[in-house]
Every structure is written in C-alpha cells, then in structure tokens.
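Notes from the 1:1 (GR / supervisor)

We went over the backlog. Supervisor wanted to see one worked example end to end before approving the batch request, so GR pasted a single chain during the call. The sequence is below; no edits were made to it. Supervisor asked that the structure be written out right there so they could see what the output format looks like.
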Amino acid sequence: MSRFIANCKPGVTKQTGTLTPQELYHAKMKWVKSCQLQVYGKQISSLMSTSKRSKQLTLLRQLRLFLDDDGFIRCGGRIHNAPLSQLTKFPYLLPPKHHLTALIVLNTHIKLCHTGVNSTVTAIRQEYWIPTARQYVKSLLRYCTICKRHQGKPYMAPDPAPLPQSRTQDLPPFTVSGVDFTGALYVQQGRDEVKVYICLFTCATTRAIHLEVVTDLSTETFLLAFRRFTSRKGLPQIVISDNASSTYLSAAEELTELFNSIDLANTLSKQGITWKFIPKRAPWYGGFWERLIGLTKSCLKKVLGRAHINLLTLQTLVVEIEAILNDRPLTYVSSDVRDPDPLTPADLLYGRRITSLPYRYVEEDELTDPTIGDEAQIRKRAKKQALIIEHFRSRWKHEYLTSLRESHKTSGNNQQKVKTGDIVLIHDDKPRVDWRLAVIEELIPGGDGLIRAANIRTSTGKTNRPITKLYPLEVNTNVDSTVPEVTNAESDDSTCSSKRCSTDSSTLPDSRPQRDAARRGRMQVSEWTKILRAPPEDVEMN
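Structure output shown during the call:
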C-alpha cells in the first residue's frame, strides 16, 4: 500500500518488482504504531502529559514505559548496561489479543520451524514485549495445525460408564454371551505341525466360560463349535464380539470375514440370536472376555511350556482349564472358617464346585435303597437343587454385584470437546506421519449420554473408532473459520496485571466477511480431502 501511494505522487520514479526490506520494515512499523494508538491511547496521552498525576497508571509504572523519538511506546527495565542491542533492551510494547500481535507470534513460530512456547517467546522478546506473553503464545499455538498433527493429544475419555444391564441383571447363565478367539496354537499331526485355535464363550453375568478347540476360523467350523456350545450351555439371546481388527494380525482378515459372514448372521437370526459388535480398535469394550482370554492363555503357557502335543491332548487340557476357571472365586476369599466358601461360576451353573467332591456324603445304604429313585424323591431333590442355586443367585446379587464398585474409576474428563464435523487423525501402529485423516460424521453416546466412540469417514469409506484413538486438528467442517474470532485488548490499566490479565483461548480475530471465511474453510477441507491416503484395513467401502 505504501508503494502504491508513493507511485501515485507526481514527479516520483515508480518502483516495481519485489518489495525491498526497507519497505517491509516501514510497513511493519506503521502497523505497530497504529496498533499502539488504537489500544494504548490512554498511556500515550499520559506519557505526553507533564502532570505527575497522569503518570501513576499501573502499566506505566510496571513496565517503565516511555516514548522514543519516533513516538513509539517502548519498555524500560534494568538491563541498560547489558551487551544487547537497543531494540532488545528497550522493546516495543504490543497488546495481547490483538490481530497484529497474533500475526507476529505465528510468523515467529513458523520461522523457528514450529518450535515450542519457550523458543517462540524468547525470539519475540528480542524486538517486542507482550504482557502475559507466555499464556498468549501458548493459547495461539493451540491452533497450529502442523503442531497438532505431530504433537497433538487425542480426545479425553470420560469417566467409565455404568455397567450395562447385561452385566448386572439376574439372567439365566449365558443369556448374554461374549465370544472371542485366542491366538494360533500348534499341535502335532503326524510329522507336521498344524494351527488350531481356542474359541471362548463367556457369560456376562455369571462369568462362566465354555472353551472349544477349532481347527480353523471358517464360518462352518465356528457354527459347529457354536452348536456344541448351545447344546451344553443353552441358547443365548445376545452374542457380543469384537470386529477382529484389533486382534492378532495373523488371523485378523479371517476373523473379519467370519464375523461379517452373511451365512452366520442368517443362521443366528433364525434362532432368535442378536449379534452385536464393539467399536473397532477398542478391545477394552470387551474387557469381560478379554480378561478370560488372558487367564486361559496363562494356564496353557504354564502347563505346556515347550511341550509338543497332539490335538486330542490339547482338547483334554482345554476342558480341564475350563473346569478350573469355572471354579475360580468371584467374591472375597475369607480366612475365617465360619464364613461361607467364596462364590464361583460353577455354583451358579450347577449348584456346586465341579473340581471337588459334592457337598453331601452319600452312605452306602442309600445306593441300594429302592425308594431313592422314585418320583417323589426325584422331585424333592430337584427342588433342593433349585433352592441351592437360588441361594447362590442371592449371594451373587449381594456379594458379587456390590464388589464391582471397588474397581470404579473417575479419572476421565466429562467436559467433552468432540463434535460432528471435526477433522481428526486416526491412531495407527505406523509412524505418526503416516496416520490417516478422517471426518467425524456421527457421535455414539453411551448409556450416560457421554461420548466414547464415533463414526468417521475417510476418503473412500466409513468406519468407527473410540474417541481416545482420534487426534483432533482443531479444524471443523461445519464452522465458518478454523480459528474463532476475538476482540482487541482493552486499553485500561488492567492490561499488564498478571492476576487480572488473562488470555482467551480464542485469539485470532477475523475481520473479513463470513462468506469469505466459509469459502476459505471449504477450500482448505477440499484440499485436505484430495490428499487423504488410503483408509485403514478395516474400512468398509461405500
């Protein structure tokens, strides 16, 4: 603009080409003076006045302000004799929360290759002095997209949600079941070694398990294992599983194909069974079966070691492990002999422990008693067995359910910032520079109304993720500008007070019309969409 005005004057040689350093310097100083006149007019009047009363302003006394020969407000101090330049010893005063100050801070941050707050503040103070500079620079750098992409943190998870009804309702065993597979095991088959897997079914309420050894991860093999499970433990109403994308890599594709099989869905639907999935890459959603998978693998490692066994031996060992885990205590194990034995999943299934002898000792005469097997005795024993199981169910309500409060945590953050339209990075096992970009399309609230997962869209498909696997870039496709608008700093004495002067997190002003801002935002999102890489391996294609 200064060059244009100079070129319009008559009798002056017109300048063309690239702007010279002198022109850029003079333009910058004009902006600094305009900024000081706009914000610190009261301080300038006080400095120009000869009255002692007018020089009692807090800002003047704290920073020892003075006017130089060119009319700029500069800061004094106690480093007059330091081996520094005059500009560093007496820097120009700039107000916080002003658009010019924001541009200078961001320009310095970019020149320093996106260094941190300390380096940026140190570089700025070589020429300018900003009250509460550290807070202001920190709030500005929060909106640096490049820094967010390489150093940003994911969304904070809220407090753990209340346990679902499937975990706390008094339902028959295995009404709500979870299913998962262990990693590949190797067994001897002649002279060769073949892969086998262990399919685990667990009850969400009684915590009982059922283990099946399968030779592969095909739909047919799983349905046969599922038929054996339902024939022994009963038909479940709901089956919950993960989506196999977070399981071991060697079988992830096979498990994904299995759990997404149309034949499997049709077979279960005909039997009235509902199949549900947890969010992808979130194994903690299936913690009630992941814990039992770990216990099963731990038992196998300790028993087998480096031994090589055949399939029949492994099946026998797996059934024994199932019995042992079903006899594990669910409640507190007391050292007092007068206290009852701890409650176990086997008590809720059979009314007794299965790895020890029955409670009642049977006399030899009772075995030859002809009345021991008549209808009245059978009904009496059935009624007694039902009372025993009902007693265990009562203990389950009053002992086991109340003990679940001991593990409740409140370490989350319930002030959530995730919203629809946010552009995020998807956490992956690859280096961070290779993470994919995505847009949040839909939030998935929990039973308490808090958001813990979201449906996202990449360049070629849709998927879902827990919010702790999403890293926001502080950019939203539903807003007019990527940075909120702010107002200029006030020109009163409280500008310099460290206790009263606070820096708002929304710092960059935008004086342009909203149409231009919206257009810029759409263009920026469009450019990012073009450079999106291929989606993760579990993305569902449109």
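Supervisor's comment: The chain is about 40% helix and 15% strand.
Batch request approved.
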